[in-house]
## 1
Amino acid sequence: MQERKEPSLRVRALRHLARREYTRQELDRLLAPHAESEDEVTQILDDFSQRGWLSETRAAEQMVHARRGRYGPARIRRDLEAKGVSAELVSSTVATLKEGELESARAVWRRKFREPATNAAERAKQGRFLMGRGFSSEVITKLLRALSRGETGDE
């Protein structure tokens, strides 16, 4: 029986990047257990960045695109920071999300609840749900007030 050879670090990195975009920190974490040294991983990541194969901007855009319909700016900010995206890129990305936050909150609310709250307990439950999804308290208040007045929120 022939012994199966482990793929090189470079091949492992390319396989990961072929599936989706990764931040440098994520790819470093994935490759580190298979590397002989930290320098080996750094060298590969530097090469990939230089060639444009590893892009923090593309990774952030992909994460935002995937999460935008389900989460608010605060949650997306936390997810980006956890993935190792730079503070400047996080700030600029989240700033663009703030513009459509009310519409996003309305869409998330509509999928979950469909009917406006009829009492304070239900309103609080809906508010907590939206807060957990990363929407700001100002947007949640604005949305729930509009709904309680009988507005569809499509003002």
## 2
Amino acid sequence: MNTRTRKHSGVAWLGEIPSDWEMTRLSRVLERIEQGWSPQCLSRPAEGEEWGVIKLSAIRAGCFDHAENKALPEHEAPATPLEIRSGDLLVTRANTRERVGDVCRVKVVRPHLMISDLVFRLHCTESVCVPEYLAMVLLSSIGRTQCRADAQGSNATMVKISQRTIYSWHMPLPPLAEQRSIARFLDRSIATIDSAVAEHERNLDLLAERRRTLTSDAVTRGLDPAAPMRESGVSWIGLIPVTWNVIDLRRLVDPSRPITYGIVLPGENVADGVPIVKSGDCTQERLTPERLHRTTRAIEASYGRSRLKGGDLVISIRGTVGLVAQVPPSLEGANLTQDAARIAPTAKTDTGWLLHVLRSTPIQIEIAHRTVGATVRGLNLRELRRLVLPVPPKAEQRRIAAFLDEHAAPIDAAAEKTRRAIELLHEYRQSLITAAVTGRLRPEETH
């Protein structure tokens, strides 16, 4: 049990800190904050001795990935003072509300990479604060709480924080020796946790591959290996059973409820509003009233055309394109944003079968081919409606859906258990960081 004496931090939401620690603002521990540059870059990463500019995805939860960059064109002179070096402390100044203010301490970096306009480089006053410790404070709930409160933007897609905002944030400040000790302890602990997460993620990939193989064979060849086959007339589909047809997706949809996207500007989340399905929500575990954002009833009233019914399918059409899920009865009357589209199958189409088809590897590859855009990838409705599918008679659709439901269920259960394990590791990681930088761990536990 931690028996060190404590005092109130003076910050209501933070509570107590050890008696020999201080509370201060980041303005005291930072020499300066430097902002990057965003020239027009190529769509590929830098190679060899080329210069590049990092993307926001290079900074994630304390880790730095120098492969996430875009090459600078040959005719553009690099801003060499902005080159990233080992030891740099980087913070994203603009991103989604969940990821704005993400931070990392650079350990390894390729030469000739620069910080971008959407990234800050923080320079510590090292006689006051150890950079590694400050990185952990910003990763903790202390940093995340202040960042989420101060991030500003017109919508949830992109919010920003300013240098002035960062300077105003509070932080607990132990003596320098203890800062170093905490940073070393957390560095080792996080490495162990991240290794466990990586192992679980590899297992998820293996489970996903098993499911893809199972699904793809069933929805493109059927369940009878002896069934006579014919050419589909579509190169990427190839052979299909002779009783099947090749049909555009729009022909499988209720003409009174055509494929459509939803609300363009849903506004801020409101507790008593109408649930809305965004691009990232198009997975079965996300489609619950408790996990969705909500828009006002006044905004939603203008979008009756995209209202959902239980049994509809929703598909992400911007950002991470191609996620598909079935709307549960609990979301009857919910709506969409412009990043997702509704697919309402006709009575002649088995919804479970269509869900499996749209998730299958051949169809996902075709969706990817039809997706365009450099910064934000998108699938327009015209391309989605014209997506061609191998379609069996409805009785066979039902048999395929039942087969896949039965045989995919154990795979899905294992995948869900693995995802939950990853979530718990992330939660433990966050709580461990917060406990260490607020002095709730005994001193010896951080040595």
## 3
Amino acid sequence: MEKRTKENPWKLKTPPLSSEYEMYVDEKDGREIIVCTVGKTILHYDYRCLADLHKMLTEHDDWMLLGSKDQKVEAKEDTVEHWGRSDDNPIGGWYGLKNGFKGRFGMYIPPLMEELGLAEVEHNKRNNRMRAI
């Protein structure tokens, strides 16, 4: 998979195509992370989420709602957001790494997966879904 740097980030749009943000790969505490910059807000996600989410979606073999929520808001079951913080995912919890900003997995990771050719993402105003390619 392609890995971009801070000097050459991916320039992405949220699934509804309403906001722009950037992502790149970096290292923190000895592990690879995805740094997501939305305006002045910076989020971190475990880099392993890309391969793990792709595997889960491939096994799911259908569309799945994104269900993006902030960290403090409970995610709806059977959504990408719920899976990204579930004890049942491969890392046993949150792929979001920055306390207070662990959520929005279902908003920011799917467009990166689409950019990398790993998934198809809908671009409606709301209730977007994704599936593995």
